Amino acid sequence: MKKILCLLIIMILFGCQTQVPKVHVFVYDLSDPFIKGLSQTLENQGKRHFDIVTHDAQNSQIIQNEMIVEVLEKESPHLLIVNPVDRLGAYTIIEKVKQENIPIIFFNREPLLRDLERYDQVYYVGSKAEESGIFQAQIISNLVGGNPGKLNAVDVNADNTLQMVIFKGEQGHQDAEIRTDFVQSELIDLGYEIDVLKVIIANWSETEAYNHAKALFDVMYDEIEVIVSNNDAMALGIIQAMQEYHTLQVDLDENYVPYAIPIVGIDGIERALIMLQQGALYGTVINDSYQQALAIIDLGLALLDNDLDGLNYTLTDGYYIWIPYKKVT
Ligand code: GAL
What fold is seen in the domain 21-127+289-324? Predict the structure, then answer.
């Protein structure tokens, strides 16, 4: 009798067990600290609902395409979540996934609208780059005293014009292009005179920004009044170069008083927030990777349930979930 009861319980348990959806996440490069944070949240929160596996393309679209093909050939995933290496590479990915009729959520690197329009099960979760550029301009406005007619001591040469250098992310990336344009246009709209001494492309990378900043400081440290960085990782590289520049100057002249150029970043990664508390970073704009990950999971669950009405986020124009940025100083 006992045996039969046990068998019955086992049968009921196995019979009722539903299959856990198989979800594959493809990220462009896990050595990018912002992406690493986002993908960790995706995994930690996602594993409550999905059998979730992450694949790192190490910044190669060719590798990412191969990884996607391999997953599609080996198993039948229920959902793909993709951070493309090249946003234009989304076209090929969409065409491939469409043949399998699997839903796909892109994030962080926004595909072109005409590519999204190619498939009825494709979505994008991200944040509006315009907003982050505007917030950086507002932070700078605060920094210089809020009155375009009379800048405070940040205007070192007292010409009532802001001499700035911009560190730009990857060329062609929507965030790099739009943030760079909007921080300038917003400052101008607020009434400020700006003089962009240089725009330096450092591909989101701390090391690249460090090397460029080192070379830059050697030739024009004293002329720069504000540094705008398209992300925090590059801001961290600039901070390190600035600290080394000061040490060198103190070594050369013991009366040298280190003067820090204010830096404004974007992302709110942990190490940058520590720098902010220590005063080495003037401000940043939080690119909310936590909320972005939660929105991706929520959208994934709704897609698998075939019930977009159950979404806890607003779906704009049928494709997009936008997560707002936040200012921090
Ligand atoms: C941006 C982020 C950068 C970098 C980039 C990668 O949104 O601010 O730090 O991670 O995405 O695509």
Answer: Rossmann fold (3.40.50)
Q: CB under 6 Å to ligand 1: residues? A: 32, 34-35, 108-109, 169, 173, 175, 204, 231, 233, 266-267, 287
Torsion angle defined by CA atoms of residues 70, 75, 78 and 84, in that order, rounded to the nearest 10 degrees: -10
In ligand 1, the atom with minimum distance to the C-alpha of 126 is 7
| Residue ranges per structural domain of the chain | 21-127+289-324, 129-286
Q: Is beta strand 162-168 parallel, antiparallel or unpaired with respect to 226-229?
A: parallel
For residue range 82-118, what is the model confidence (pLDDT) as tens digits?
A: 999 999 999 999 999 999 999 999 999 999 999 999 9
Tell me which residue of 117, 109, 121, 114 sits closest to 85, measured CA to CA.
109
Q: Which CATH architecture has domain 129-286?
A: 3-Layer(aba) Sandwich (3.40)
| pTM for this predicted structure | 0.93
